[in-house]
Amino acid sequence: MPLLAERKFRRTAARRRQSSGSRQRAVSAQARRSFSFRLFLLPVSGRQRPLGPMSRRALRRLRGEQRGQEPLGPGALQFALHDDDDAEEEGPKRGTGGRRPRGAGKEGVCVNNRFELINIEDLEEGPVLNGERPECLLTGNRRRSQSGGADAKKAGEVAGKAAPPEQSNISGKLRKKKKKQKNKKNTAGEILENGLEDIDRILERIEDGGGLSRPGPPPLSSKKHILYVEHRHLNPDTELKRYFGARAVLGEQRPRQRQRVYPKCTWLTTPKSTWPRYTKPGLSMRLLESKRGLSFFAFEHSEEYQQTQHKFLAAVESMEPNNIVVLLQTSPYHVDSLLQLSDACRFQEDQEMARDLVERALYSMECAFHPLFSLTSGTCRLDYRRPENRSFYLALYKQMSFLEKRGCPRTALEFCKLILSLEPDEDPLCMLLLIDHLALRARNYDYLIRLFQEWEAHRNLSQLPNFAFSVPLAYFLLSQQADLPEQELSSAREQASLLIRQALTMFPGALLPLLEYCSVRPDAAVATHSFFGPDAEISQPPALSQLVSLYLGRSHFLWKEPATMSWLEENVREVLRAVDSGDPAVEACESRRKVLYQRAPRNIHRHVVLSEVKEAVAALPPDVTTQSVMGFDPLPPLDTIYSYVRPERLSPVSHGNTIALFFRSLLPNYTMEGERLEAGGAGGLNHNQGLNRLMLAVRDMMANFHFHDVEAAREDNPEGDGEWD
């Protein structure tokens, strides 16, 4: 007996080792299979069922054994059918023979007939992932169920005749369970279809947002903000591709893009491989406040950047461009130095280098943007009174000027909208004097008309000569397009005629200079009439003459078309008839001209200086032309907000030498000893006091000069004294 017991113990241990090894291999295979399903199935809603240990049924299936091959014991035909197969392995301890006691664990359904298990799908189906079964397993089970459907029906009928009443209850429960499984499959299929539809919608939204399906500009009916900026129109290559094709524009740039060393994506400019390696120069941006849906930002200078700024001001005072070049060798991304050197290159006719320096300045400032600062929203503000912000305004303006000269008016219009959106109420660079010109050059007539309609009520755009003449011109050019309905064409023509008559009545002094620019000889009835004659140009206020000169010097070539001149001639004759008939609107416009155009504000003078239109610059008042205008900060605001103060020179000023005092007063940072503004006065230089000191020094110097009468001396001693003085 001890020998038999030992042999039985060894066989039991070997069987247990074999079953445990097979179970581990089955678990690893099942895990690999479930992982592959996770890779190829789409994610759908539902909770994923954790993968538990392998059941005995799956283990037998992997080993190739069948259920009826094991030896039958007492009660072997009755076994429990549980809802969860994993509960077989996770219960209490097993008894002898590896079976679970009947009373342990979850209650199951007792089945006496094995053929009842054929149509139970959960015994033949594979693993469940995310609340549903894979499609490949479902199709396989359908095929097996169809092939064995006849045998199952016969076995079910035989079992139904011989089964007791308890078995009918069991079969009813099985049918209910089968219906539940089918409902689960249907819901899983619906979830899968809904998930696919959601993915399709998301892809469509991404394509729409990326502009893949709509290459053209968005329609005006979308009612975007009037100053909304589109990223794709900030790139001049987009406009050049439309003119010359992508192959001509990007033919030389494609090899260079592979060697790009600038990982940061920028919108305002494209970094070049010839630029110095970018390092943070100490320029940053911070959010000041947010109110009424607007966000106010400001650029900031670190201590290192402030020291560089002081060196730059000293280099400007030296009047030597080479000093700025030396400064850029140590600080290659100092913005003001780049802008000042760009002006020097432009004066020397080196346009390519000037544009490259401006683009580098824009890249430096864009790298310093705040994460919340948006170029396109139209809700971000930069106060021009802060000197740190002015560099961004001037860099954008110079880039816009280069783009216009390059033949990219659509891109220049987008930059113009961007500058105007930074501070639309104050408009420090007075972009309203330029935006109409760019819109007409870009043939974006709808935008100009919409801007006039939305802003006329609160900005009185019709009181500016450029808008008074450009808007009717836009209506007229719009009426010349053949792709519009006849009703819209006639309506645009009528509106154009109405507005141009109002403009000629309000600004009669602009007609003869416009005809002269266009090389058109006016009719004798027009040239000799008192309303449009030379007296009209002479009698208008100086501020109005400056605005008219600015508009005509910039946009006169837009009126040279023969159709435009014929339309203008018709409306000029209509205005003359109204004047001769004594229309009261003529006297109202004359009184309005005398009241509204007394003096031009400072932002208009700043715009004229930046525009470099000769006719407008010549019309500047003397108090502006006598000031020293710096390219990096032309005509700064009188209420400047300084964040830091430049240290003053400690060398005393010589009061005895008038000539030395005069030359020292020419420097921008000239101050008398002890003359400093109080802390509340912005900590800068008072330009009016500096100008007064300059005038006093000149008067003192001229008063101390004494000229000797050389002719009288020669008459007294015609032969000379024979000695050298």
UniProtKB/TrEMBL annotation:
It holds the Pfam family Tcf25. InterPro entries: TCF25/Rqc1. It comes from the Eukaryota. Residues 85-107, 130-189 are annotated as: Disordered. Residues 173-185 have a biased composition (Basic residues). This is Transcription factor 25. The gene is TCF25. The lineage of its organism: Eukaryota, Metazoa, Chordata, Craniata, Vertebrata. It comes from Felis catus.
